Amino acid sequence: MAEEIAFLSEEITKICSEIRKALDSLPKLKKKRDQRDEKIEFLNERFSRAKDVYSSYRMELREVLKECGRVTYTQWEQAGHKHHQAISALAVELETFKAQADRVDLLDGGAAAAQNQRNKNDSNTWAGNEVIEKAKKVQDESKASVARTAKLVGKIEETANETNITLKAQTDQMRSINEDVVQVDTSLRRADKQIRDIARRLATDKIIMCLLLILLLGIVGLVVAKAGNFLPTGGPSVDCKLTSAQALLQCLANLTAKSPPA
Description:
This protein is an all-alpha fold.
């Protein structure tokens, strides 16, 4: 993905260089109308190509954010803004030249018409009216050129607004993702704490079970000893009011006291 957007970036830079070179050659063709119109047609084709490549660049930029991360996306986003500004500046420069060329055509056309009229008729007959009509025509053309420029600027502003909306949406998405990550981390910590509590409870339950098992074995041993007459007779009796643990301890003490020395 990075290779594709890099190729598009180089393509835009190349096209802008071609446009720059053609614009620099236009002043030399200001009075050569045919060559000038041919060069302007070439420039219009190059501008159309630049806009198409830039649109593809914006589409690839979305994929860069998904596959390469925020840092790489920001770098190519900044490069895209520079390309957009360069294309816009070159377009404004071309429209400005067109307006200047129209004014030159007006002056040249008016002078030629006046000279032809002087050669045919009296110098004060129609020269002024023709110049005025030509001036009105060129003025209308200049207004149309200004309208085209305003339309182009409007498109540029619309693209900029769309870019801002896209950036805002992506920022909100990143913020939502960050909140989800924080929530997941909190849930994991809570789960870890609950697991530790359960482990402590299990350990306590095991200890209690071991003590109960020892107590049970002691009681069984006393019963077996009593049934088999293994206990000495005439010894101290066990108080039945004692608890099982206390009775076991008392019996063990009695056995120890009565056992013969080794």
